[in-house]
Structure formats: structure tokens, C-alpha cells
Amino acid sequence: MTSATAGDAAQVSPAAQTRKSVTGTRKRMAVAFLLPALVLLGALVVYPIGYSLYRSFFDKSGDFTGFGNYVELFTDDTILTAIRNNAIWLVLAPTISTALGLIFAVLTERIRWGTAFKLLVFMPMAISMLAAGIIFRLVYEQDPDRGALNAVWVGVHDTFAESSAFPKAHPGQESPLKPGGKGSFVTRTTVEAGVPVALPLLGVPKEQMPQEAAPAKAAAAVPGKVTGTAWQDFTLGKGVGERNAPDTSESGYPGITVEAVKGGKVVESTRAAANGTFTLSGKADGAQLRFPASNFREPYNGVDWLGSEQAVPFLGVNFVTLSVILSYVWMWAGFAMVLIAAGLAAVPRELLEAARVDGANEWQVFRRVTVPLLAPVLAVVLVTLMINVLKIFDLVFIIAPGDVRDDANVLALQLYNSFVDRDSGVASAIAVLLFLLVIPVMAVNVRRLRKEVRR
């Protein structure tokens, strides 16, 4: 029996001996199945990389220039701005998105409606970059009537510092008022109790006058008190009326502040009525009357979120770049949250409870137990977002206005602009640079994956 078995084993067919894999698949069959994928990989990945490398050594006209295009990458101001902004993106966007994802994932574990919250945070991932760019272009509009962010910002600002109803008001050439410094206006002479004062102003269009404004009225003399009128000394389309004297066709300045100043100090202040009349006590006798600069404060129009002139003081990042990064975080924080929440679900609860039993507070549990256990997941999220950020294009192209797009420039956008300018040599050099920048990130990711497999 034993010898027969050995003989059968020795007489295995040659076809069976050619089978190398566990499933018995022949090499030729495996190659036949892999060939279409290899052809596509070569046509769509290997060939473009090789041709981009080759084309990067030629200039715009097709003449060989060696490393001239690569030298231009680090000498051209526009491209240097793109490289700088890419570095800012690489640091801020993945870090903020991952940090918010971690915070959301940990906090939503403790609330009943955590699933609904996760759904809301993750929902922006269903929106394309193009649609998100259009949404945030409207959100960042500086006009508070159109831009949602500035509408909120202006509302909060005006709650604490209300803007004036007369930002364009100013005295005429023959007015009894003169500039008083820092945007204020004062009377040329001191006033006397019992003698009405006329304080005429110009410059406020009729349609911009407050609704409560009433026809101007000359103030009556009151013994022992200083009275007067503040009004718009102009009537559109009419040549009647006396200059520097109230007329019924002219409007008073309701609510305008009038101060009595002696020796540089305000001794009394009041506000004008709807018809522009006001009354001060005997303290104002012998004082100069002043319209403080607060009467003429320009309306606050919010922040120019898409302007390059403003920058975050402690970061040095212009607002347009920071605004685009925030829109990216809005989209990708949900992605980070979902992955981190999945990793958090696999964390052994016994370890967390043991730390609490040993006297650790919630912050210590989070910092010394939860975060170290989530380190592999956090690394996956961070590396994924870093790779994604290196090729960011859509949001910058859509959100940044044309006049500041160079200030928000990134390498992918500069690559596109170079192709539009038919400078394929510089564009290819930028593509090679992006490829080289991705390689270290990918190497870290591959190394981490190999460590995970060994475990």
C-alpha cells in the first residue's frame, strides 16, 4: 500500500507540476488577466509621469533648456507664492481637520444625538468641491446684505458699536462750524445761554436720512439754557430758503450728539430731537459746541475675507488663503471624524475605565490613553489629508477673486495657469515637483502599513 502511494506521487502529470499558486492558476493566465490593468496603469500613470519629466527640460518654444524650468520655480515670485501657500496648506488644513475630527468623535460619544450630529458634519463630503467653492464665495461676500458671514459679523459689531446715520455729513463753507480734529466739528465761537445756536450741516442724501427725521425747526430762546438746531441745510431742486437758517423744507438731524466743551473737557452732552432741536443747561454757557466724530462714523461693512491686504497677525497668512482653508476644513472635518470615530469604537473600554479608577481625570484619560491608542488612525487621516491638500485646486480657483488669486495661488492652480499660458515646460516642472512632494508622504504611509501588517 505504501509503495503504491509513493508511485502515484511520482507519476504526477507535468501540467500539475506547472501550477505554482495556491489556487492553481497558471502564470500565463495570471498575466492575461493582469495585462489590461498593466496597460491602463502604464498609459494613465507611468507614461504621463515619464513624459512630464521629459517635457520639463524644454522651454515654452520647445527648445532644450536643461534645468531652466526648475530654476524658474524657485525664482519666479508667482510660483514662490504658490509654494509658500502650499506649505501653509500642508501645515494648517490637515492639522485643523484632524483635530476637529478628533474632538467631534470623542464628544459625540457622550450625547444622545451624536449620530445626527455626525451626519450633519459629514454631509459636506457629499458636495463637490465646485459646489462648495460657490457656496463659500457667497458666504465670504463683503456686502453684509449678501455675505452670510459678514452679516453675522456686522450684527455683532453694531450691537456694541453702532454706526452713525450721518457718515457723510459736514459743514459748508460759510458754516459756523469748523473741523475740531479726529473727525469732529466745533463752533467757531463760544455760545451764550438764552441765545439760540444754528448748527447747519450738508452731505447726507435725502434717501439716507433717518425715517424719524422731521422738518427742521428753529430753536426757541430759553433763559439760562443753551438751545439750538442741527439740520440738513440743503433742499434738493429748490433755490429758496436762507443759508445757515432752518427751513421747513429741510430736515433735522434726529439723534445727533451735541457736546458742550470747556477747556478741552466735555461739561454736558445731549441728543437732538426729530426736528433737530436740542437743549443744554446753563453749564454750556460760554462753551464751544461740538459734534463728536461718533456722529460721522462710517457704517461697518465687516471684514474683507477675500482680500490679500489683511493678514492674521500671529500667523502671517493673508485672509484669502485662510478663508479658502476654512472652507476645506468645513468639507473634510467630517471625513476625519468618521474615520477617528471608527477607530475610537475599537478602543478597549477597560483601559479607559482603569485609568479613571486610578484617579485620572477626563483630560488625562483623553491625552494619555485615548490619543495614544488612536495614533495609527490619526496618522492615516493626517497622511490622507496631506496628500489631498497637495493637489488642492478647485476651492482656490472658485473662491479667490481674480484680483487676489495670485495671492492665494497654489501649485496645482499655477500648473493650470502655466498650461493656459501655453508654457508646458514650466507646467511639467511643477507637476514633477508635486510628484516629488507626494513621494515622502506616500513613503511614510507605506512604511506605516507594513508595520501594521507585521503586527
Automatic annotation (TrEMBL):
The reply on keyword Ion transport is no
Subcellular location(s) of the protein: Cell membrane
Pfam families of this UniProt entry?
BPD_transp_1
A single GO BP term for this record reads: transmembrane transport
GO CC term (a single one): plasma membrane
Q: Which UniProt keywords apply?
A: Cell membrane, Membrane, Transmembrane, Transmembrane helix, Transport
Question: InterPro entries under this entry?
Answer: MetI-like, MetI-like_sf, UgpAE/MalFG_permease
| UniProt keyword DNA-binding present | no
Supply the name of the protein. ABC transporter permease subunit
Organism name: Streptomyces boluensis
Organism lineage reads as:
Bacteria, Bacillati, Actinomycetota, Actinomycetes, Kitasatosporales
